[in-house]
């Protein structure tokens, strides 16, 4: 493994490589998580030997960023595998979650509970039409789940457990 770069040096290298990518592919690739992930790994690398190892591996995986979309290369697959391992490590060892995940999961749970609640209300109140109960339950459940997810994400952010 090559010497581990500092965050600023790594970001500058990524920006230079990203400039050579076609604009459409760069936009579709969703690379915006890289700066946050790199910064998090670098900050944790002094206290966690696994984070130091993953910080180096992330740098290695992005060495060929400008070749990710060429036919017949394995760089993109290697990168995806590394990011998956890093995310698992951060979740298991440090209880860190990516931004938006908690919000999305809670909104989905709210939708499901809202639909069930709408069906129950429609059966209990015969005047209330079934479609109306389901739609109202879905909307209220989604909103409730979204607000609860925002609240939980804000607590995680304040605890520095969200990236």
Compact overview of the structure:
The protein has helices at 7-19, 23-28, 33-44, 49-61, 75-94, 101-124, 130-158. With 163 residues, the protein is an all-alpha fold.
Task: List the keywords.
72% helix, membrane, transmembrane helix, mainly alpha, 163 residues, Glycine zipper family protein
Could you characterize what this model shows?
The protein is elongated. The protein has two domains: 7-94, no CATH class; 101-158. The chain has 163 residues and is an all-alpha fold. The protein contains seven helices and no strands. α3 packs antiparallel against α4 (49-61), α4 (49-61) runs antiparallel to α5 and α6 runs antiparallel to α7 (130-158). The chain crosses the membrane at residues 101-125, 131-149. Keywords: Membrane, Transmembrane, Transmembrane helix. This is Glycine zipper family protein.
